Amino acid sequence: MVRVLLVEDDDAIRTSLGKSLTAAGHVVTAVAAGAEGVAMVARDRPDVLLLDLGLPDLDGHDVLAMVRAVSDVPVIVATARDDDASVVKLLDAGADDYVIKPFSSAQIDARIRAVLRRLGQDQQGESSLDLGALRIDPRSREVTVDGASVDLTRKEFDLLLALARRPGAVITKRELLAEVWGLPWGGGDRTVDVHLSWLRRKLGETAADPRFLHSVRGVGVKLAAPEGS
């Protein structure tokens, strides 16, 4: 049973969607204001947050930033904009998925199941992944290098895990966009590049002097243990 927090200011949508998701077996709490939603995320720790961007008290992007400051709860954003730049901006800001208005309750239910499957349930029985001095624990979402803990954001961890599941294999940026960001099309290579740069810095390496992350020009990137480790 999934605990869903719905933040939507439209009374009709909030009521209708709440009833439909409840009928689908979820436990739904619905509020109309962004500030109240942020407070409930911090206090009640829902399993999923459904966030409308057009709220009366706060800009939805600001609400997303506030949520990410206090929680790693999976966030599905409802937006009227479907251009690549807007979608990439949302995902980079911390959204885990998005739906374009108008949408159906069946689509929302499917998105909830998909995002939970992608972000957590598939990792429950997965063992730690070791590449030399790098250890990744999918269950606790913890990473260590040379025994020292590495503090990663959700997206940085998901990117590292996607690469670690295929050690030594060159993975294209399009594949990473689809698997980590849920974007099954091109156009967001810069998003991958930026997150790889952040990830390299936290792992104590650079593109010019790689230890674990190796770029293959014109193809993609691979994660591999250092030679001799």
From TrEMBL:
Annotated OmpR/PhoB-type domain residues: 126-225
GO cellular component term, pick one: protein-DNA complex
Lineage: superkingdom: Bacteria
Keyword DNA-binding: yes
Name used for this protein in its record: DNA-binding response OmpR family regulator
Record flagged with keyword Repeat: no
Residue ranges: DNA binding: 126-225
GO process terms (BP): regulation of DNA-templated transcription
Pfam hit, one: Response_reg
Domain named Response regulatory: residues: 3-116
PANTHER family: DNA-BINDING DUAL TRANSCRIPTIONAL REGULATOR OMPR, REGULATOR OF RPOS
GO molecular function, a single term: phosphorelay response regulator activity
UniProt keyword terms in alphabetical order: DNA-binding, Phosphoprotein, Transcription, Transcription regulation, Two-component regulatory system
4-aspartylphosphate found at: 52
